[in-house]
């Protein structure tokens, strides 16, 4: 999902997510609306000039993750081109709609889901498949399924068994 959203590389996203959890809703949180700006977070246009190495160091031991990190934008462009060549309608359904929903979802999650600390906001699940239970995620970030109605967590449990 993070590559579909074209926000940053997988390692960059994981590291920024770790930063977010370490500094949640504080001045060093990379996407805290109170400190970065509500509109920048809502539109997912926030940036992180420097991500400290401690948030990503261990990720570079995974060769597949490093490959995607180095080539993520090329991978996205190739997927978009191939999907368009299959059919413009397929491109819209497979690439464009998920891109738009990801941008909207990340923005809503980081603004509404953090309006006053991490919150559970069930209606957000209409846009972000289970991440509306965001307080549950912050309470136990290693948990895959956040609630019985967490469709994204349910799918992850079924397809990515540890």
Task: Write up what this structure looks like.
With 162 residues, the chain is mainly α. The two termini are 19 Å apart. The mean pLDDT is 86. The protein has 8 helices and no strands.
Strand content: under 5%
Estimate the global geometry from the Cα principal axes.
globular
Mean pLDDT: 86
Which ranges are low-confidence, i.e. pLDDT below 50, for 5 or more consecutive residues? none
Helix content: 40-55%
Largest sheet: none
| SSE sequence, one letter per element | HHHHHHHH
- Tally of strands: 0
Cα gyration radius (Å): 16 Å
Features:
single chain, 162 residues, mainly alpha, 8 helices
Task: Present the secondary structure layout.
Blueprint lengths: L9 H13 L10 H4 L1 H5 L20 H24 L1 H24 L13 H4 L5 H6 L11 H9 L3
Helix pairs in contact: 4-5
Nutshell version of this structure?
The protein is mainly α and 162 residues long.
């Amino acid at each position: 999902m993070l590559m579909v959203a074209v926000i940053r590389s997988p390692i960059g996203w994981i590291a920024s997510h770790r930063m977010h959890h370490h500094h949640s809703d504080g001045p060093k949180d990379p996407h805290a609306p109170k400190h970065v700006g509500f509109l920048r977070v809502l539109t997912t246009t926030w940036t992180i000039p420097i991500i400290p190495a401690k948030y990503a160091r261990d990720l570079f031991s995974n060769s597949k993750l490093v490959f995607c990190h180095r080539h993520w934008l090329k991978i996205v462009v190739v997927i978009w081109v191939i999907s368009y060549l299959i059919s413009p309608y397929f491109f819209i359904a497979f690439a464009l709609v998920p891109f738009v929903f990801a941008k909207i979802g990340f923005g809503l999650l980081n603004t509404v889901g953090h309006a006053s600390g991490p919150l559970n906001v069930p209606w957000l699940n209409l846009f972000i498949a289970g991440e509306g239970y965001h307080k549950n995620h912050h309470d136990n970030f290693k948990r895959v399924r956040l609630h019985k109605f967490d469709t994204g967590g349910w799918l992850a449990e079924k397809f990515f068994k540890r």
